[in-house]
Amino acid sequence: MTIFIPTIEDVRKAEPVIRQYLSPAPLIRSWPLEQLLGLKNDRRVWLKDYGWTPVGSFKLMGALNWVANNLQTIGDQRIAAHSSGNFASGIAFAGHTFDKSVVVVMPDNAPKVKIERTRSFGAEIRTFEHAQDHITGDRIRMAREISENEGAIAASPYDDPYVIAGSGVGGLEIVEELRAQGRNVTRFVCAVSGGGLMAGHALAIADGFPNARIIGVEPAGAADFQQSLEQGRRVRIDQPSSICDGLLSYDVGEHNWPILQKHVSDAMTVTDSQICQAMKWLYDNHGLRAEPSGATTLTALLEGKVDVAAEGDIVLVISGRNVDDDGFREWIA
Predict the structure, then answer these.
(1) Residue 318 main-chain phi, psi, to 5 deg
(2) Residue 170, SS3?
């Protein structure tokens, strides 16, 4: 079966949709990181902070674009999705925006903030046992049964052209803002899980800054994309493990993989303990509370895994900040 792979034109079509409901996420210059890396005075490091959005992560962009482009298909039916938490709140917000009913399947150990935020937008939550999902497949099964037995329309959290294109609008924001300042990006660093965030941004960054190296980062215990890039095929990990609950997909999506394979030059991994240190550094130096998934990109820089010797600017994606207070305090202690 032929699948539709989105292009930069699809990202551009998504931009006016997103702009109706969401203004651009902040792009923050990190002077402390520039000093730490010893960069020349004419170079900059930028943090794209998606924790600022109403749902606390980047997932809202893809969710809004998906619902906006599926209104006729949805009609009076419910929207069904599975999510570790961030897409859950994103699709819940989008459903609320377009007056559509939403039900999401979430792991039983999802952070409370993600559960509460999802419910605050009116979505119904059904949980599965995360520890056994690699054996039972309950996450996919429950979402599929809601669609089949209850007549809901299924939304993928990452493996969908409209979700990819919507996520890519954030990449357009980066390109437009930095080109307006006369800047040149030579390193773009983004986390990879199912691949929706990276695929969308890679389309925009490759178009706007064609000389930029696009670098993916994963937790060491969930490095399916790194293995996929090395082997030239999608590799599945049966039991990914990390404190990064938002980066535990089993493999990258079918729609995402061709884009990632074409545009992402490097994939690297970081450990959970290193991620904790990066969360603390970000909080101490910028006052930003990132969830573990959101701090992976910074971790790669702090650990010296990204070659920063080239000229030009560096952009890091901080994908979200949905972390419970007790967990955050424990991880940065």
Answers:
(1) -100, 100
(2) helix
